[in-house]
Known about the structure:
The complex is a heterodimer of chains A (463) and B (157).
Chain A: H1 3-11, H2 30-53, H3 57-61, H4 65-88, H5 93-111, H6 113-133, H7 138-148, H8 152-168, H9 171-174, H10 179-186, H11 188-203, H12 211-243, E1 245-254, E2 257-263, E3 277-282, E4 292-295, E5 304-310, H13 314-318, E6 327-334, E7 346-352, H14 356-365, E8 373-378, H15 387-396, E9 400-405, H16 417-421, E10 428-435, H17 436-448, E11 456-461
Parallel strand pairs in A: 7-8, 7-10, 8-9, 10-11
Antiparallel strand pairs in A: 1-2, 1-6, 2-5, 3-4, 3-6
Helix pairs in contact in A: 2-4, 2-5, 4-5, 4-6, 6-7, 6-8, 8-11, 14-15
Chain B: H1 4-25, H2 53-57, E1 66-70, E2 74-75, E3 79-88, E4 91-102, H3 105-125, H4 137-153
Antiparallel strand pairs in B: 1-3, 2-3, 3-4
Amino acid sequence: MSFDSALAPAARRGKRRQVPARPDSPRPRPALARAGLVLAGTGLGAVTALAVTDETASQLAAPGGAATFLGSLTGLIGTYLALMMVLLVSRIPAIERVLGQDGLLRWHRRLAPWPISLLAAHAVFITVGYAQAARSGTWHEVGVLLTRYPDVLTATIGLGIMCFIGVISLRAIRSRLRRETWWLVHLYMYLALAISFAHVLALGPSFVGHPLTRIVWSVAWAATAGLVLCYRFGLPVVRSLRYQLVVAEVRREGPEVTSVICSGRHLDKLAVAGGQFFCWRFLTPRLWWQAHPYSLSALPQPPYLRLTVKAVGDHSASLATLRPGTKVVIEGPYGAFTKHAQQGRRALLMAAGIGVTALRSLLEDLPRNSAPVVLLRASRPEDLVLAKEVAELVRYRHGRLHELVGSREEAPLDERSLPQLVPDLRQRDLYVCGPEGFVAGMVDLAKRLGVPDEAIHHEAYLL
Amino acid sequence: MKRAAWYLIAGTVAGFAGVLGLHGRAAPPVLVAGPKSTGGGASPAATPGAGGGARASGPVQPTGPARQVNGVVEQYGYGELSVTVTVRGSQITNVSVPLLRTAEPYSQQLAVQVLPMLKSEVLRAGSARIYAVTGATYTSQAYADSIQSALDKLHIK
Lengths: 463, 157
């Protein structure tokens, strides 16, 4: 069994039309993401209005009225934003195809501080407001709230969990934690949200005595939970059972770079675009509990599927020790770094280091005579992995390949050198893939050189 | 996804306006917090002359002019309340709650539910010595204390 022999026809894809075509990956529909955005906004407006309409002038003027009003406003908006946080990572395929997993995670990360701080403020405002209304001390009111109001104790525990996760997510602390540890702990957010739910319905001014809002709120949360279960759990299980992937071969590609070739059933039915990735879970006693995102380094060649990984962490390093026959569970495909993103007719593909994997499979999706320009960046010659395969794919498409090897000083990519290498830069779609710093630098450079925003597509590997 | 902010803002405005519009057309809230609305009329049987309830519970007909007096405002941890007691002679004929203010609707709803029960307890006992309603101990205590303060002003027992 050899992946290379299977690879050869793939390099000449398009020449032999009689090869049964895999189903094309579904095209992203930006209108759906826009509709989702409008819907999210509608919900935000609705909960704000809900908090406002429940307030009368006399209630506001009563002792503690202002603090209580701010408390329910921050509580409602904070909870709503928490719902959005969950939806952003629920892997809804229609949205994911447009924004990509990394785009959704970026939004998730950007939004994260808001629900946590709003909900913390909610707790403070409510305590102060109730204490003023009852003309008791604030600390006394804390005890009253925890012991005498229904479901407040569990909600407070939930808030504690949220704040803890918020603190360990601060950059300074998070960078000291192992990625897996942080990730597992931050999943407790689901628990925190679940145990906070009851007190909203029992005590929320917009819900007590308002059956309609109770129903709408409950349905919204149940639907969100359903989406999470369906797309984060159900779909991966179904796909993994369908494709039955097992490790077929592990191959060294370069220093610290390993290819894992999996074999499975029905891979001719797998709709995946070049440049996409899966979250891989290898069922060994040490690795089964973590799933990591790795790009396909080639389009599927039934019955094979290949990923190529650089050893940068514990998980990626241990892939070199995988034994043939190891069962594999997949989640995906994910990512908007595909041919569908292309606006114009020509492309410039840039990758640094192990970013070449996504570039390599994306290249396969570009048609013949598309004359792509490919820039591969590496600090040492031996780090140019898969370069031979890339060269063959570029040649078949009548494109040009530039390999830039050396330090940034030796082989600079800047405002002078890039236009020299790619004179028609502004007429091309730019695809950049690699470590975060490289991607950010190249996106910035391209913008300065006049490449329009919508023609820049990127996927960064977060370490 | 350019102009993402505009889609978001448009949605927010629509949602806000939509709920405001719905709220404007909706019936008034279920909870009634206004003065005198909670005590009065909850159990008409206890009002003199309105039915047989009061007569059946006590053989003695109330005599003398009706007098009304307000109890003190009681802070009871969830909010505050005060009662107005009506007596004829030395018999309590009616209790109303002109002031009931709580921090949040949960306590308000709870109070609205138990106040009629407390009222009938008081009318039956003829004094402020009543059992607290389970689940509303503090409300019951405040209610009883406010009634007692009113009775004290009238020098009844």
